[in-house]
Amino acid sequence: MWIFILIAIVAVTACAILYLAYCWRRTVYADQRKSVRGLLVPLAAVMLFFTAAGLLLNFINAVVVVTHIAVVMLAVEFTAFCLRRCGVRFSSKLQFCSAMLLSAAALGWGWYCDHHVWRTEYSLTTAKNIPDLKILMFADSHVGATFGADGFAKHVEVMKEENADAVFIVGDFVDDDTSKEDMIASCRLMAELKAPYGVYFVLGNHDRGYYGSARRGFSVTELTDELQKNGVTVLKDQIVSAGGINVAGRLDYSVVREQHGTRLSPAELMAKAAPGGYTVVLDHQPVEYDLLGASGADLVLSGHTHGGQLFPLNQVGRMIGAVDRVYGHEKRGAADFIVTSGISNWALKFKTGTRSEYVVINIKGAGGENR
Which of 34, 70, 248, 257 counts the highest number of beta carbons within 10 A? Predict the structure, then answer.
């Protein structure tokens, strides 16, 4: 699958570069379209811009930049076409300049949405006899990508102020490029997130790493050991009971999809839950919604998708069946499902289709006030 994705990325990037070179030629070299200069200079200019973006950011972010400019250019061109049908005309230079300005604004906003963290709040109700709960949830910190341990500490300071009853960390705490020093320092920060019902963690696909422990200097076992040293309960296809709620943590779906291993089915996992309790399931990837709902889950929390990441590709994961939801809250039967966009990012430096966040979930139970 990764080979097909790589081929698709290369193909789309090539088309974007050629299209932008065509727009440049039409705007700057309109009177030299058939000359060698009129053909090669625009292409060389776009290739130089792409190379500079790659050196400044990295290859994948250079792809994001040129493809976003191409999409905006197409949108401006279509708008100009519609206006021409209404008798309003714009010069090609005005179209080109407008598209570049809009692209800069879109990418600038995408950069800000990736590097700034918002607070997102949901309010839920349950007929089960539990006290009112305040849950803090975050995922996809990818420490070392958007921020290191020092930057993560600032977000932890903000989240501490929530004084939540329980804290749920739903995978991808670290990344393949996270240093051992940043990993240890970030795990120590978790000791500051005090919660009466505890702090819980499930592994994501990046926590295990794709390139082996030698590259980043620590193993997944060292990661979980450090988290546990700092008061975090790591759940691997396990359920624990705390304050009248069951907290179920699933092994990540990458164990099945990429490592050809196994994990407990929702029914097998939920069979371990204390009867009558309110059950929160932590599952890094938002999959198997119908099975989880049928098995008696009350609330399922996930990350992984980064909220769809980039416009207009936000819903591709759901459309191809890779996930059941890309972002936000959904009610299926008696179960609530919430997917967060995460507080950070993977290799990409832009979120043009969503924004970074941590999540607060207020649950009103039949048992009344908790505090």
Answer: 248
Cα→Cα distances 59→47, 54, 246, Å: 13, 5, 44
CA distance 161 to 272: 33
Q: Cα(9)–Cα(30) distance, rounded to whole angstroms?
A: 30
**What pTM value is reported for the model?**
0.92
Query: What is d(CA 19, CA 14) in angstroms, rounded to the nearest whole number?
Result: 9
Query: Do 362 and 122 form a contact (C-beta atoms < 8 A)?
Result: yes
Give the span between the Cα atoms of 144 and 152, in whole angstroms. Answer: 9
Domain residue ranges in the chain: 2-114, 119-364
State both tokens at 327.
């972002």
The DSSP symbol for 143 reads B
Cα dihedral 55, 59, 62, 68 in deg (nearest 10): 180
Residue numbers in the chain where pLDDT is lower than 70: 1-2, 29-38, 367-371
CATH class of 119-364: alpha beta
Beta-carbon contacts of 162 under 8 Å, excluding residues fewer than 6 positions away, are: 134, 136, 360
